[in-house]
Amino acid sequence: MAKVMEISRKIEEFAPKFLKEDYDNVGLMVGDGQKEVKKVLLSLDCTNEVIKEAVKLNCDLIINHHPLLFKRPSSIVKGDLIGDKIITLIKEDIALYSCHTNLDSAKNGINETIVNMLGFNSSKIIETNESGNYKDGGIGRIVKLEKEMLFLDMVNLVKEKLNIKNMRIVRGNEKIKVLAIINGSGQDFFYKAKSLGADCIITGDTTYHFASDFKEMGVSIIDAGHFSTEYIVFLKTLEFLKEKFKEVEFIASKKSEDPYEFV
């Protein structure tokens, strides 16, 4: 029977902890590394609804992308959002593991997987991460298109491949030659992407002034949303675990949802 620590180790072989960004927190958040695992629930966030789902499904481990604990809490008490979650996880004997920016940066991680899901091949990493002499890791990918593409055709491609109904777009130009893809919140890397020749950026969480400035600079933005550029890709990226642990049932959460609604 597989244990929490064995599944954790395989994830960290694929996406070493040292690849995480400085602000991040990855690894086992809650629980016993020696706990035996029969069922794993995969989710983007550790919400109360996801925890209830894990309890209902008798899961032993939740693996999520966004860490429940970004910073060390000053207290763990009932009546507090994070405290309630931790207390419930411990009470129900469910371990919680998070793989975040290390999974984004890893070779064949989330950044590369979303490129492949869109049908492209990346030619360059936007922000390389060579920690621990790691090769081919980092945040964001540059795609040099073999053939120039219309902006609206790219919009429709993203909607189709990532199963998105609505998104925000910034039309900086009508044609695309060089594409930048940064899952989640990517605007910190916009200027670097532009310096690498990107005339269209696919990401999420773009703020107003970035949208306005980059439109004036002739760079289009496809803001497909934080959730939509990560959850489906997170599930795809972790499919290797099913091969490594065939005796474990991996379940995609149905309660892991985009907090935003479009009305």
Provide the fold topology.
Blueprint: H1 4-14, E1 27-30, E2 39-43, H2 48-56, E3 61-64, H3 81-91, E4 95-98, H4 101-105, H5 110-117, E5 124-128, E6 138-150, H6 151-161, E7 168-170, E8 175-185, H7 190-195, E9 200-204, H8 208-216, E10 220-223, H9 231-237, H10 240-244, E11 249-252
Parallel strand pairs: 2-3, 2-11, 3-4, 8-9, 9-10
Antiparallel strand pairs: 1-4, 5-6, 6-8, 7-10
Helix pairs in contact: 5-9
Protein name: GTP cyclohydrolase 1 type 2 homolog
InterPro entries: DUF34/NIF3, DUF34/NIF3_sf
Organism: Clostridium puniceum
Portion in beta strands: 15-25%
Give the count of structural domains: 2
Number of strands: 11
- What is the terminal-to-terminal distance? 47 Å
CATH class of the largest domain: Alpha Beta
Overall mean pLDDT stands at: 97
- Kindly provide the radius of gyration, computed on alpha-carbon positions and rounded to a whole number of angstroms: 19 Å
The shape, in one word, is: globular
Give a quick account of the main beta sheet: strands, pairing sense, barrel closure.
Answer: 6 strands, mixed
GO molecular function: hydrolase activity; metal ion binding
InterPro entries: DUF34/NIF3, DUF34/NIF3_sf
Protein name: GTP cyclohydrolase 1 type 2 homolog
Binding site for a divalent metal cation: 65-66, 104, 226, 230
